[in-house]
Amino acid sequence: MTPDEAMGRALELAADAAGWGDTPIGAVVLGADGAVLAEAANEREKVGDPTAHAEVLALRAAARVHGDGWRLTGATLVVTLEPCTMCAGAAVLSRVDRVVYGARDPKAGAAGSLWDVVRDRRLNHRPEVVAGVREEECGALLRAFFRSKRGL
Question: Choosing from 12, 39, 45, 55, which is the catalytic residue?
Answer without folding.
Answer: 55
